[in-house]
Design brief:
Layout: E1 2-8, H1 12-20, E2 29-36, E3 39-46, H2 49-69
Length: 74
Amino acid sequence: MFDSTIIIRQDANALDKLLSIEQHDLGRSSFNQKKNGSQLILEVKAEDAIAFKTVMNTLAKIFIVWEKTKNLEA
């Protein structure tokens, strides 16, 4: 079993909203999110290394898209 905690301190409210629409259970891996003041805490759990890589890649892709689009103006 693999467990990891990710703490996000920048734009936590925006990422909280964005991640709330994502699927949290990916089969052999999952993540939970919770707000703690101005921080967003993600708790990642996976049954094996491949499942851990899958959930971390999923989160990383979301973060990359968010970073690239957050400064765009409509």
